[in-house]
Amino acid sequence: MSRIGTEYEVVFIDKNGMIVPTLASGKQPGIIEIRNLEAFSDRVCEGARFAASLIEMQGSARNPTRVVLKLERQIIAIDGKGLGTDFWIRPETLALIEADVYFGRAIRLVGPKGSGKTTFAQLLAKMFGVPFIKVDGTGIFKPKDLFGAESAEDGSTKWVPSDLMLFIETHRSSKHWPKAIVCLDEFSRMGHSMAPFHALFDHTGQYSFTTTDGTVVIDGLTGFIFILTDNPVGPGYIGNQSLDAAMSDRVEEHEFTYPPIEWEVPWLVSRTGITVDEATHIVQVAAEVRVLATAQMWEQGGPSPRRTLRAAEDVSIGKPMSLVVHARIIDRYPDGDAESPRRVIQQRLKSAELLDERVAVVSVVNVADVGAPAT
Ligand SMILES: Nc1ncnc2c1ncn2[C@@H]1O[C@H](COP(=O)(O)OP(=O)(O)OP(=O)(O)O)[C@@H](O)[C@H]1O
Ligand SMILES: [Mg+2]
Question: Are residue 103 and residue 149 in the same domain, yes or no?
Fold first, then answer.
């Protein structure tokens, strides 16, 4: 039986153009009165979820005719919704990112290539049901470049807004929280000085700059979640720089790593239809190389899930396993003397019984048989 003080989850849905709350249980009393709405007024929108306590009820618990609920706090929880088995992220990382989104903080995702940073930024927008835009950071030198460019036309210069500027204008008055996700991909590769960016990531939600046409003021940035993605500074990543102290103080940083083996194997199986044994072999090879690559400082991270996925795709259409793990993983490392990365990897894989030399070389016996044109 529902008691006064019981916590409910309230989900706001759009019905006939009106925002009306329903109990998550699906029961819809004739009258629902919501208290404390003003405290969350800027957060109430279609799909928003709140924890609420019951402060009055008329009718029976099964068939309430009128309930009075008091909103206690908003619930931001996206886990399990859409992430499912197709994306792996540490639960602690996800929980903290949810809090960052709730408070409208700028986020920075740092991790080796192919650890899912860009994909996650896009998924986050999908899970919140809000628009997404990705801006390639490598061509941006000052914050102003994000919003437009000076263009010469008929002998005079004119300020031409960028896609990001138009995107912000379109979604500025959105009633959703967040309004949108803006991914500044490869942020620290911008080759710029960090200092001008400090103003973009302060608490004002406003940014202004001058152009030949005058001063442009961008307002209403609050609610746009900026997600900066970066590779770590270190071997294998050219051009990356660390954030300066004032910049790193403004953004919440989260480390991305490759998924655990137990997750990667079923993921490859479900993505490509290869067998568990085949997926296990690919992932074990990748895992050995990951340990070596990072320990030997060849590159941070080693072969990414992008690599294992490509290998699994090849195997799924009948390409021999040995050819595939060489081409997609091992042979990407430079060959040379016994100390060279490729030889070290081969040695390691052989002693782990993951490399069978007898099938490592694949020869095409009779090209004419498959109808290739004679050259
Ligand atoms: N954590 C993960 N969960 C599921 N798939 C992943 C994950 N990480 C990477 N992948 C796979 O690898 C692909 C590449 O990931 P993505 O481009 O998002 O990585 P990134 O971290 O942005 O890499 P880069 O630093 O090279 O830009 C994804 O499309 C996905 O198939
Ligand atoms: Mg990326």
Answer: yes
